[in-house]
From TrEMBL:
Domain of life of the source: Bacteria
Name used for this protein in its record: DNA repair protein RadA
Binding site residues for ATP: G92, E93, P94, G95, V96, G97, K98, S99
Biological processes, Gene Ontology terms: proteolysis; recombinational repair
Region (Lon-protease-like): 348-451
Gene designation per UniProt: radA
Gene3D superfamilies recorded: 3.30.230.10, P-loop containing nucleotide triphosphate hydrolases (3.40.50.300)
NCBIfam families: sms
Database matches in PANTHER family: DNA REPAIR PROTEIN RADA (PTHR32472), DNA REPAIR PROTEIN RADA-LIKE PROTEIN (PTHR32472:SF10)
Keywords in alphabetical order: ATP-binding, DNA damage, DNA repair, DNA-binding, Hydrolase, Metal-binding, Nucleotide-binding, Stress response, Zinc, Zinc-finger
A Gene Ontology molecular function term of the record: serine-type endopeptidase activity
Domain RecA family profile intervals: 63-212
A GO cellular component annotation in the UniProt record: cytosol
Length: 451
Protein backbone atom coordinates (compact mmCIF):
# COMPACT_ATOMS: atom_id res chain seq x y z
CA UNK A 1 0.00 0.00 0.00
CA UNK A 2 1.11 3.55 -0.70
CA UNK A 3 2.38 5.45 2.32
CA UNK A 4 0.05 8.20 3.55
CA UNK A 5 1.31 11.69 2.88
CA UNK A 6 2.78 13.69 5.76
CA UNK A 7 1.21 17.08 6.56
CA UNK A 8 2.35 19.97 8.73
CA UNK A 9 0.02 22.21 10.73
CA UNK A 10 0.43 25.68 12.25
CA UNK A 11 -0.12 25.67 16.00
CA UNK A 12 -1.49 29.22 15.93
CA UNK A 13 -4.17 29.19 13.23
CA UNK A 14 -4.38 25.56 12.01
CA UNK A 15 -3.07 26.24 8.47
CA UNK A 16 -1.75 23.06 6.81
CA UNK A 17 0.98 22.48 4.25
CA UNK A 18 2.43 19.30 2.64
CA UNK A 19 6.01 20.35 3.55
CA UNK A 20 7.62 22.02 6.53
CA UNK A 21 8.17 25.77 6.40
CA UNK A 22 9.60 28.10 9.02
CA UNK A 23 6.84 30.69 8.69
CA UNK A 24 3.10 30.11 8.55
CA UNK A 25 1.59 31.14 5.24
CA UNK A 26 -1.69 32.21 6.86
CA UNK A 27 -0.91 34.06 10.13
CA UNK A 28 2.77 34.77 9.31
CA UNK A 29 3.95 33.42 12.68
CA UNK A 30 7.48 32.01 12.89
CA UNK A 31 8.29 28.57 14.30
CA UNK A 32 4.71 27.39 14.74
CA UNK A 33 4.51 24.81 11.90
CA UNK A 34 4.90 21.25 13.21
CA UNK A 35 4.32 17.74 11.93
CA UNK A 36 0.71 16.69 12.31
CA UNK A 37 0.79 13.15 10.89
CA UNK A 38 -1.12 11.84 7.91
CA UNK A 39 -4.49 13.38 7.06
CA UNK A 40 -7.47 11.36 8.23
CA UNK A 41 -10.39 10.73 5.93
CA UNK A 42 -12.42 8.57 8.31
CA UNK A 43 -16.08 9.39 8.66
CA UNK A 44 -17.54 10.00 12.10
CA UNK A 45 -20.60 7.98 13.08
CA UNK A 46 -23.18 9.01 15.65
CA UNK A 47 -22.32 7.86 19.16
CA UNK A 48 -23.72 7.94 22.70
CA UNK A 49 -24.35 11.32 24.30
CA UNK A 50 -23.28 12.31 27.79
CA UNK A 51 -26.52 14.16 28.54
CA UNK A 52 -29.75 14.50 26.61
CA UNK A 53 -30.56 17.87 25.09
CA UNK A 54 -33.12 19.89 27.04
CA UNK A 55 -35.18 23.00 26.36
CA UNK A 56 -33.12 26.06 27.13
CA UNK A 57 -35.58 27.22 29.80
CA UNK A 58 -35.06 23.92 31.67
CA UNK A 59 -31.29 24.34 32.00
CA UNK A 60 -30.27 25.10 35.59
CA UNK A 61 -28.35 28.26 36.47
CA UNK A 62 -26.65 27.17 39.69
CA UNK A 63 -23.59 25.85 37.87
CA UNK A 64 -22.92 29.28 36.36
CA UNK A 65 -23.28 31.20 39.65
CA UNK A 66 -20.13 33.02 40.67
CA UNK A 67 -18.61 32.76 44.16
CA UNK A 68 -16.61 35.70 45.53
CA UNK A 69 -12.94 35.05 46.24
CA UNK A 70 -12.67 37.66 48.98
CA UNK A 71 -10.45 39.96 46.88
CA UNK A 72 -12.87 42.69 45.84
CA UNK A 73 -11.07 44.09 42.82
CA UNK A 74 -10.26 40.63 41.48
CA UNK A 75 -13.94 39.71 41.77
CA UNK A 76 -14.80 42.94 39.95
CA UNK A 77 -12.56 42.00 37.02
CA UNK A 78 -14.09 38.50 36.92
CA UNK A 79 -17.64 39.84 36.94
CA UNK A 80 -18.50 38.81 40.49
CA UNK A 81 -16.18 35.94 41.35
CA UNK A 82 -15.12 32.46 40.29
CA UNK A 83 -17.55 30.13 38.54
CA UNK A 84 -17.51 26.38 39.13
CA UNK A 85 -15.52 24.77 36.30
CA UNK A 86 -14.32 28.08 34.85
CA UNK A 87 -10.76 28.32 33.49
CA UNK A 88 -9.06 31.72 33.82
CA UNK A 89 -5.84 32.74 32.06
CA UNK A 90 -3.90 35.49 33.87
CA UNK A 91 -0.98 36.93 31.90
CA UNK A 92 1.51 39.64 32.76
CA UNK A 93 5.13 40.71 32.60
CA UNK A 94 7.72 39.15 34.93
CA UNK A 95 7.80 40.70 38.39
CA UNK A 96 4.49 42.55 38.07
CA UNK A 97 2.94 40.63 40.98
CA UNK A 98 0.94 37.76 39.45
CA UNK A 99 2.10 35.14 41.96
CA UNK A 100 1.55 37.49 44.92
CA UNK A 101 -2.01 38.21 43.82
CA UNK A 102 -2.94 34.58 43.16
CA UNK A 103 -1.40 33.43 46.44
CA UNK A 104 -3.61 35.92 48.26
CA UNK A 105 -6.66 34.78 46.25
CA UNK A 106 -5.89 31.12 47.05
CA UNK A 107 -5.52 31.82 50.79
CA UNK A 108 -8.79 33.75 50.97
CA UNK A 109 -10.56 31.02 49.00
CA UNK A 110 -9.18 28.38 51.37
CA UNK A 111 -10.45 30.37 54.36
CA UNK A 112 -13.98 30.87 53.04
CA UNK A 113 -14.91 28.51 50.19
CA UNK A 114 -12.96 25.24 50.32
CA UNK A 115 -9.67 23.59 49.47
CA UNK A 116 -7.23 25.31 47.14
CA UNK A 117 -4.24 23.74 45.37
CA UNK A 118 -1.37 26.04 44.37
CA UNK A 119 1.02 24.42 41.88
CA UNK A 120 4.26 26.30 41.28
CA UNK A 121 6.60 25.35 38.46
CA UNK A 122 8.88 28.37 38.67
CA UNK A 123 9.81 28.42 42.36
CA UNK A 124 10.41 25.93 45.14
CA UNK A 125 7.74 25.28 47.73
CA UNK A 126 9.92 26.92 50.38
CA UNK A 127 10.14 30.17 48.40
CA UNK A 128 6.37 30.34 48.04
CA UNK A 129 5.99 29.54 51.75
CA UNK A 130 8.24 32.51 52.63
CA UNK A 131 6.18 34.85 50.47
CA UNK A 132 2.95 33.56 51.98
CA UNK A 133 4.27 34.22 55.48
CA UNK A 134 5.38 37.73 54.53
CA UNK A 135 2.04 38.64 52.92
CA UNK A 136 -0.19 36.85 55.42
CA UNK A 137 -1.44 34.24 52.92
CA UNK A 138 -1.29 31.17 55.17
CA UNK A 139 -4.37 28.93 55.41
CA UNK A 140 -5.02 25.41 56.66
CA UNK A 141 -6.87 24.37 53.50
CA UNK A 142 -4.31 25.86 51.08
CA UNK A 143 -2.14 23.06 49.66
CA UNK A 144 1.17 23.82 47.94
CA UNK A 145 3.30 21.73 45.60
CA UNK A 146 6.20 22.35 43.22
CA UNK A 147 5.73 20.25 40.08
CA UNK A 148 6.58 20.54 36.39
CA UNK A 149 5.19 17.18 35.25
CA UNK A 150 1.56 17.15 34.09
CA UNK A 151 0.88 13.63 35.35
CA UNK A 152 2.15 14.59 38.82
CA UNK A 153 -0.07 17.68 38.82
CA UNK A 154 -3.11 15.56 37.98
CA UNK A 155 -2.11 13.15 40.75
CA UNK A 156 -2.11 16.01 43.26
CA UNK A 157 -5.56 17.03 42.05
CA UNK A 158 -6.84 13.49 42.74
CA UNK A 159 -5.26 13.45 46.21
CA UNK A 160 -6.29 16.94 47.40
CA UNK A 161 -9.72 17.19 45.73
CA UNK A 162 -9.60 21.01 45.58
CA UNK A 163 -12.29 23.44 44.46
CA UNK A 164 -9.66 25.90 43.17
CA UNK A 165 -6.46 25.17 41.25
CA UNK A 166 -3.74 27.74 40.53
CA UNK A 167 -1.10 26.63 38.00
CA UNK A 168 1.91 28.96 38.01
CA UNK A 169 2.68 28.80 35.17
CA UNK A 170 1.31 26.88 32.21
CA UNK A 171 4.60 27.38 30.29
CA UNK A 172 6.66 25.51 32.91
CA UNK A 173 4.58 22.31 33.01
CA UNK A 174 5.11 19.64 30.36
CA UNK A 175 3.50 16.40 29.24
CA UNK A 176 6.12 13.64 28.67
CA UNK A 177 3.88 12.03 26.06
CA UNK A 178 3.88 15.16 23.87
CA UNK A 179 6.69 16.41 21.65
CA UNK A 180 8.73 19.53 22.30
CA UNK A 181 10.16 21.25 25.34
CA UNK A 182 8.17 22.92 28.10
CA UNK A 183 6.79 26.25 26.96
CA UNK A 184 6.57 25.24 23.31
CA UNK A 185 3.41 25.49 21.27
CA UNK A 186 2.60 21.76 21.47
CA UNK A 187 3.33 21.47 25.19
CA UNK A 188 1.32 24.54 26.15
CA UNK A 189 -1.63 23.33 24.11
CA UNK A 190 -1.51 19.83 25.66
CA UNK A 191 -1.14 21.07 29.24
CA UNK A 192 -3.91 23.64 28.87
CA UNK A 193 -6.24 21.08 27.25
CA UNK A 194 -5.65 18.61 30.09
CA UNK A 195 -6.30 21.22 32.80
CA UNK A 196 -9.42 22.45 31.01
CA UNK A 197 -10.74 18.90 30.73
CA UNK A 198 -10.21 18.26 34.46
CA UNK A 199 -11.82 21.59 35.38
CA UNK A 200 -14.93 20.95 33.29
CA UNK A 201 -15.38 17.31 34.32
CA UNK A 202 -14.99 17.94 38.07
CA UNK A 203 -16.30 21.48 38.35
CA UNK A 204 -13.02 22.96 39.64
CA UNK A 205 -12.28 26.65 39.16
CA UNK A 206 -8.82 26.83 37.55
CA UNK A 207 -6.45 29.78 37.14
CA UNK A 208 -3.58 29.41 34.66
CA UNK A 209 -0.69 31.88 34.79
CA UNK A 210 0.72 32.77 31.37
CA UNK A 211 3.90 34.46 30.24
CA UNK A 212 3.96 37.34 27.74
CA UNK A 213 6.22 38.07 24.79
CA UNK A 214 8.23 41.22 24.10
CA UNK A 215 5.26 42.97 22.48
CA UNK A 216 2.99 42.19 25.46
CA UNK A 217 0.92 39.40 23.89
CA UNK A 218 0.40 36.05 25.63
CA UNK A 219 3.11 33.52 24.82
CA UNK A 220 2.06 30.23 23.28
CA UNK A 221 -0.58 29.30 20.72
CA UNK A 222 -3.37 31.75 20.08
CA UNK A 223 -5.85 28.91 20.48
CA UNK A 224 -5.10 29.00 24.23
CA UNK A 225 -7.05 32.26 24.58
CA UNK A 226 -9.99 30.72 22.73
CA UNK A 227 -10.11 27.61 24.91
CA UNK A 228 -10.23 29.34 28.30
CA UNK A 229 -13.30 31.10 29.66
CA UNK A 230 -11.67 34.28 30.97
CA UNK A 231 -8.53 36.12 29.85
CA UNK A 232 -7.02 38.68 32.25
CA UNK A 233 -4.01 40.93 31.74
CA UNK A 234 -2.05 42.03 34.81
CA UNK A 235 -0.46 45.41 34.10
CA UNK A 236 1.70 47.79 36.06
CA UNK A 237 4.81 49.94 35.98
CA UNK A 238 7.80 48.71 37.95
CA UNK A 239 8.28 52.21 39.37
CA UNK A 240 4.66 52.52 40.52
CA UNK A 241 2.68 50.71 43.21
CA UNK A 242 -0.48 50.65 41.11
CA UNK A 243 -1.43 47.39 39.40
CA UNK A 244 -4.36 46.86 37.04
CA UNK A 245 -6.14 43.61 36.19
CA UNK A 246 -7.80 44.19 32.83
CA UNK A 247 -10.45 41.81 31.46
CA UNK A 248 -9.92 40.94 27.80
CA UNK A 249 -12.40 38.07 27.51
CA UNK A 250 -15.10 36.90 29.91
CA UNK A 251 -17.82 34.36 29.23
CA UNK A 252 -19.46 35.02 32.59
CA UNK A 253 -19.51 38.80 32.74
CA UNK A 254 -18.50 42.05 31.05
CA UNK A 255 -15.26 42.02 29.08
CA UNK A 256 -14.26 45.62 29.81
CA UNK A 257 -13.83 45.65 33.60
CA UNK A 258 -10.67 46.76 35.41
CA UNK A 259 -9.53 45.92 38.93
CA UNK A 260 -7.04 48.19 40.76
CA UNK A 261 -4.49 46.98 43.31
CA UNK A 262 -1.79 48.48 45.50
CA UNK A 263 1.42 46.40 45.58
CA UNK A 264 3.60 46.93 48.67
CA UNK A 265 6.28 45.03 50.57
CA UNK A 266 3.63 43.45 52.78
CA UNK A 267 1.54 42.12 49.90
CA UNK A 268 -1.17 43.30 47.53
CA UNK A 269 -4.45 44.96 48.45
CA UNK A 270 -7.52 46.13 46.54
CA UNK A 271 -7.97 49.80 45.70
CA UNK A 272 -11.67 50.61 45.57
CA UNK A 273 -10.91 54.33 44.92
CA UNK A 274 -7.49 54.74 43.25
CA UNK A 275 -8.10 58.28 41.95
CA UNK A 276 -5.79 59.87 44.52
CA UNK A 277 -2.77 58.10 43.01
CA UNK A 278 -3.15 60.03 39.75
CA UNK A 279 -3.43 63.55 41.18
CA UNK A 280 -0.78 65.84 42.66
CA UNK A 281 -1.38 68.48 45.31
CA UNK A 282 -0.11 72.06 44.99
CA UNK A 283 -0.28 74.78 47.61
CA UNK A 284 -0.78 77.37 44.85
CA UNK A 285 -2.00 76.91 41.26
CA UNK A 286 0.81 75.89 38.91
CA UNK A 287 0.84 76.62 35.15
CA UNK A 288 0.85 73.59 32.86
CA UNK A 289 -1.48 71.22 34.72
CA UNK A 290 -4.99 70.10 33.80
CA UNK A 291 -7.32 67.39 35.10
CA UNK A 292 -9.31 65.00 32.93
CA UNK A 293 -11.42 61.90 33.55
CA UNK A 294 -10.51 58.69 31.76
CA UNK A 295 -12.49 55.46 31.53
CA UNK A 296 -10.67 52.25 32.48
CA UNK A 297 -13.22 49.70 31.34
CA UNK A 298 -16.42 50.93 33.00
CA UNK A 299 -14.63 52.73 35.81
CA UNK A 300 -14.04 56.51 35.59
CA UNK A 301 -10.68 57.63 36.98
CA UNK A 302 -9.30 61.14 37.30
CA UNK A 303 -5.94 61.78 35.69
CA UNK A 304 -3.65 64.80 35.74
CA UNK A 305 -1.69 65.92 32.69
CA UNK A 306 1.36 68.11 33.20
CA UNK A 307 3.18 70.10 30.52
CA UNK A 308 6.35 72.16 30.38
CA UNK A 309 7.24 74.54 27.54
CA UNK A 310 10.79 75.90 27.44
CA UNK A 311 12.82 77.85 24.88
CA UNK A 312 14.79 75.41 22.75
CA UNK A 313 18.51 75.76 21.98
CA UNK A 314 18.30 73.11 19.26
CA UNK A 315 17.53 73.44 15.59
CA UNK A 316 14.78 70.84 16.03
CA UNK A 317 12.91 71.36 19.33
CA UNK A 318 12.38 68.35 21.53
CA UNK A 319 9.03 66.63 22.01
CA UNK A 320 9.07 64.24 24.98
CA UNK A 321 6.14 62.61 26.75
CA UNK A 322 5.49 59.99 29.41
CA UNK A 323 2.22 58.12 29.81
CA UNK A 324 0.64 59.66 26.69
CA UNK A 325 0.34 58.51 23.09
CA UNK A 326 3.14 60.17 21.11
CA UNK A 327 1.11 60.44 17.90
CA UNK A 328 -1.82 62.11 19.68
CA UNK A 329 0.51 64.52 21.47
CA UNK A 330 2.08 65.53 18.14
CA UNK A 331 -1.38 66.02 16.58
CA UNK A 332 -2.68 68.13 19.49
CA UNK A 333 0.44 70.33 19.42
CA UNK A 334 0.00 70.91 15.68
CA UNK A 335 -3.69 71.82 16.12
CA UNK A 336 -2.87 74.11 19.06
CA UNK A 337 -0.30 76.02 17.03
CA UNK A 338 -2.31 76.22 13.82
CA UNK A 339 -5.86 76.72 15.20
CA UNK A 340 -5.09 78.24 18.60
CA UNK A 341 -2.25 80.57 17.55
CA UNK A 342 0.07 79.30 20.30
CA UNK A 343 3.67 79.42 19.06
CA UNK A 344 5.49 76.17 19.80
CA UNK A 345 7.78 75.72 16.80
CA UNK A 346 10.83 77.13 18.64
CA UNK A 347 10.12 75.59 22.05
CA UNK A 348 10.76 72.26 23.72
CA UNK A 349 7.51 70.64 24.89
CA UNK A 350 7.42 68.02 27.65
CA UNK A 351 4.17 66.27 28.60
CA UNK A 352 3.57 63.69 31.31
CA UNK A 353 0.93 62.06 33.49
CA UNK A 354 0.98 61.80 37.28
CA UNK A 355 1.31 58.49 39.13
CA UNK A 356 2.37 56.38 36.16
CA UNK A 357 -1.09 56.51 34.55
CA UNK A 358 -1.36 55.81 30.83
CA UNK A 359 -3.85 58.04 29.00
CA UNK A 360 -4.25 56.97 25.40
CA UNK A 361 -7.93 57.63 24.74
CA UNK A 362 -9.04 60.70 22.73
CA UNK A 363 -10.99 62.11 25.70
CA UNK A 364 -7.71 63.43 27.14
CA UNK A 365 -6.95 65.61 24.08
CA UNK A 366 -8.63 68.75 25.43
CA UNK A 367 -6.91 68.52 28.82
CA UNK A 368 -3.57 67.95 27.11
CA UNK A 369 -4.07 70.99 24.89
CA UNK A 370 -5.05 73.23 27.82
CA UNK A 371 -2.06 72.06 29.87
CA UNK A 372 0.36 72.93 27.05
CA UNK A 373 -1.34 76.29 26.43
CA UNK A 374 -1.16 77.09 30.15
CA UNK A 375 2.54 76.18 30.27
CA UNK A 376 3.26 78.32 27.21
CA UNK A 377 1.46 81.40 28.59
CA UNK A 378 2.54 80.94 32.21
CA UNK A 379 -1.04 81.37 33.46
CA UNK A 380 -2.43 78.53 35.64
CA UNK A 381 -5.85 77.05 35.02
CA UNK A 382 -8.57 77.29 37.69
CA UNK A 383 -7.88 74.61 40.34
CA UNK A 384 -11.43 73.14 40.23
CA UNK A 385 -11.51 72.82 36.42
CA UNK A 386 -11.62 69.58 34.46
CA UNK A 387 -11.61 69.18 30.68
CA UNK A 388 -13.15 66.41 28.56
CA UNK A 389 -13.18 66.20 24.79
CA UNK A 390 -11.48 64.99 21.63
CA UNK A 391 -9.61 67.53 19.49
CA UNK A 392 -10.03 67.25 15.72
CA UNK A 393 -7.63 68.40 13.03
CA UNK A 394 -10.03 71.17 12.03
CA UNK A 395 -9.91 72.53 15.59
CA UNK A 396 -13.34 71.21 16.61
CA UNK A 397 -14.02 69.64 20.01
CA UNK A 398 -15.81 66.31 19.63
CA UNK A 399 -17.97 64.37 22.06
CA UNK A 400 -16.60 61.36 23.96
CA UNK A 401 -18.28 58.24 25.29
CA UNK A 402 -19.43 57.92 28.89
CA UNK A 403 -19.57 61.69 29.46
CA UNK A 404 -22.19 61.44 32.22
CA UNK A 405 -20.13 58.92 34.19
CA UNK A 406 -17.02 61.05 33.82
CA UNK A 407 -18.78 64.19 35.03
CA UNK A 408 -20.32 62.35 37.99
CA UNK A 409 -16.84 61.19 39.07
CA UNK A 410 -15.44 64.72 38.70
CA UNK A 411 -18.27 66.08 40.84
CA UNK A 412 -17.66 63.40 43.47
CA UNK A 413 -14.01 64.42 43.69
CA UNK A 414 -14.90 68.07 44.29
CA UNK A 415 -14.52 69.64 40.83
CA UNK A 416 -17.00 72.44 40.18
CA UNK A 417 -16.38 73.34 36.51
CA UNK A 418 -16.01 71.20 33.41
CA UNK A 419 -15.15 72.11 29.83
CA UNK A 420 -17.05 69.72 27.57
CA UNK A 421 -18.06 69.55 23.89
CA UNK A 422 -21.32 71.12 22.78
CA UNK A 423 -24.60 69.34 23.52
CA UNK A 424 -23.37 67.09 26.36
CA UNK A 425 -26.81 65.79 27.30
CA UNK A 426 -27.95 65.24 30.92
CA UNK A 427 -25.26 66.27 33.39
CA UNK A 428 -24.96 66.21 37.22
CA UNK A 429 -26.51 69.19 38.97
CA UNK A 430 -23.52 69.94 41.19
CA UNK A 431 -21.03 70.83 38.45
CA UNK A 432 -20.97 73.86 36.14
CA UNK A 433 -20.78 72.97 32.46
CA UNK A 434 -19.02 75.18 29.90
CA UNK A 435 -19.69 74.03 26.36
CA UNK A 436 -16.91 74.66 23.83
CA UNK A 437 -17.15 73.94 20.14
CA UNK A 438 -13.59 74.60 18.98
CA UNK A 439 -10.06 75.29 20.17
CA UNK A 440 -10.54 79.06 20.33
CA UNK A 441 -13.54 78.79 22.63
CA UNK A 442 -11.75 76.29 24.85
CA UNK A 443 -8.70 78.54 25.30
CA UNK A 444 -10.90 81.56 25.99
CA UNK A 445 -13.04 79.68 28.53
CA UNK A 446 -9.95 78.37 30.33
CA UNK A 447 -8.60 81.93 30.67
CA UNK A 448 -11.98 83.26 31.81
CA UNK A 449 -12.37 85.40 28.69
CA UNK A 450 -15.49 85.62 26.52
CA UNK A 451 -15.16 83.46 23.43
Amino acid sequence: MAKAAQIFRCGECGWTTPKWVGRCGECQAWGTVEAAGAPRVDTVAAGPVAEAARPIAAVGLEVARSRPTGVGEFDRALGGGLVQGAVILLAGEPGVGKSTLLLDVSARWAHEAGRALYVTGEESAAQVRLRAERTGALADHLFLTAETDLSAVLGHVDAVQPSLIVLDSVQTVSNPAADGAAGGVTQVREVAAAMIRVAKERGIATILVGHVTKDGSIAGPRVLEHLVDVVLHFEGDRHSRLRLVRTVKNRYGPADEVGCFDLTDSGISSLADPTGLFLSRHATPVPGTCITVTLEGRRPLLGEIQALVATSALATPRRANSGLDSSRVAMVLAVLERRGNVRLSSSDVYTSTVGGAKLSEPAADLAMMLAVASAASGRPLPPALTALGEVGLAGEIRRVTGLQRRLAEAERMGFTTALVPADPGPVPAGIKIIEVADVGQALAAADGRPS
